[in-house]
Amino acid sequence: ELVLPQEAGDPRWSAAAERLTHSIAGADGDRPRRIILARCALKGRDPRDGTLQTARDVDLTISWPAWSDSLAVNGGLRWSDGSARITLTDLRPYALFSGGESPFTAALTWPTGSLSAQGNGSLRDGLKASGTGSLQTRSLHKTLALTGGGLALSPFVEDFAVEGSFEAAAGQIQFPSVTVRSDGNVLEGAGSATFGPKRNAVQATLAAE
């Protein structure tokens, strides 16, 4: 069982994280080629409400071949509310830790849906990302519950899909151009979403084709 940092600067992780960051950034001329976690448990704070939770059956592989500038992540986990798998490719750590941008391709799947995105991101002035993506779910209510949020009519919405361009930073996502599909209906427009420990909020201006 691994216990994740409980707060910023957790002494159990800070020194190791600093050494790993310097290694990835090339400060000491070396870097890890592969990191593997198999059949383990992770204990940490739930980002939705701060409670201590445990994820089980965690498998994670981080690969960064010596001949490549790109890092790849593949893994999965199970927790009390369900399970999920994630893949992340095309990420360039050197660019990120030197203050530049990195391309990325990401995919997340869970029993009732999937999320995919591709674009560019940076760590300069906080985590920022922009690109295009899509969300598909067979149960909007269950998907929103995973984030700790909900909508009044979400239990009645089954097939639901969103795709378009996005710009994300500091707990907010802007959708300059978005297409929403639900139960055979198609709406287009723009919108935004805000995520926080107490409340998630979504705003959109949409019109039928």
Output the number of helix runs.
3
Shape: globular
What is the ordering of alpha helices and beta strands? Answer: EHEEEEHEEEHEEEE
Domain tally = 1
Largest sheet, spatial ordering of strands: 1-2-3-4-5-6-7-8-9-10-11-12
Helix/strand-derived category reads mainly beta
- Sequence stretches where pLDDT stays below 50 over 5 or more residues: none
Estimate what percentage of residues fall within beta strands.
Answer: over 45%
Protein name: AsmA family protein
Organism: Chryseobacterium phosphatilyticum
What does this structure look like?
This is AsmA family protein. It is a single chain. This protein is mainly beta. It has one domain (2-208). The protein contains three helices and twelve strands; from the N terminus they run E-H-E-E-E-E-H-E-E-E-H-E-E-E-E. The chain has helices at 11-24, 93-97, 140-146, and strands spanning 2-3, 34-45, 52-63, 71-79, 82-91, 101-110, 113-122, 128-137, 160-169, 172-182, 185-194, 201-208. It has a twelve-stranded mixed β-sheet with strand order 1-2-3-4-5-6-7-8-9-10-11-12. The chain is globular. The relative contact order is 0.09.
Quick overview:
12% of the residues lie in helices and 55% in strands. The relative contact order is 0.09. This is AsmA family protein.
List the helices and strands and how they pair.
Blueprint: E1 2-3, H1 11-24, E2 34-45, E3 52-63, E4 71-79, E5 82-91, H2 93-97, E6 101-110, E7 113-122, E8 128-137, H3 140-146, E9 160-169, E10 172-182, E11 185-194, E12 201-208
Parallel strand pairs: 1-2
Antiparallel strand pairs: 2-3, 3-4, 4-5, 5-6, 6-7, 7-8, 8-9, 9-10, 10-11, 11-12
